[in-house]
Specification:
Elements lengths: L1 E6 L9 H13 L6 E6 L2 H11 L4 E5 L17 H6 L4 E4 L2 H5 L4 H13 L3 E6 L3 H5 L3 H10 L11 E5 L13 H19 L5 E4 L7 H4 L7 E4 L6 H12 L1
Helix pairs in contact: 1-10, 7-8
The chain binds 2-phosphoglycolic acid (PGA).
Length: about 250
Amino acid sequence: MRYFIGNWKMFGVPKSIYILNKINSFHTRDKNRNKYRVIITPPYTLIETFAKNFNSKKVLIGAQNCYQKNQFSSDTSAISPFMLKSVGAKFTLVGHSDNRAEGDTNEILKSKVTFALKNNLKVVFCIGENKKEKKNNKTLVVLNKQISKVLNKKFHRNKIIVAYEPIWSIGTGKIPKKNELKKTIIHIKKILKKILKKSPPVLYGGSVDNNNIREFKEIKEIDGFLIGGASKNPKKFIDIIRNYYR
Ligand code: PGA
């Protein structure tokens, strides 16, 4: 199974549902539709209406983040996994570099994963090194730490997807070299296998578009993609899927 996840970030109003309609009608007619799953993570404001319209179809709705507590609390502006589940989210991203930059530590991320799973949300756990770490050849050490400080054997691997997103690649148009990326993905799967017995799916994210997808598809170890910028444009998002299977 492959995954194409569209992370909308701070984008979208109710009428943006037309984007999901287009993706859904493409999916319904696509002969490859049983080979992959589409998940969209709109902002919190749109989860409920989108989930009502699409969860019974083939486009699944997730959140971009969740708070590190279970249900209700007195933390202003926080949204818990319980609340997300109650409006129809099926997934949540955890550990996106935007949120790590805002202060999400490994300890916080561990609570987020724990409470998300407890509320039956599947977790897309994001990891990735920054430019300096890459330059200093620290990529594998960094990834190892990000994974082992947060995931543990009590988490069920069927409920987790890992997304490798090098920070220097997000929104920059820069992508990793093919050989390097292949090695990194294999390394990530090795670490995950040690912790979870078998590796969950590992996705790539960072400047994926309808053109460079042709390079990524040659790396069979990549189980799917987390797509930011290009997911806001239905044609580009659909072309990513089309070109992947071409
Ligand atoms: P990008 O974002 O595709 O715009 O680089 C990816 C992400 O941040 O998930």
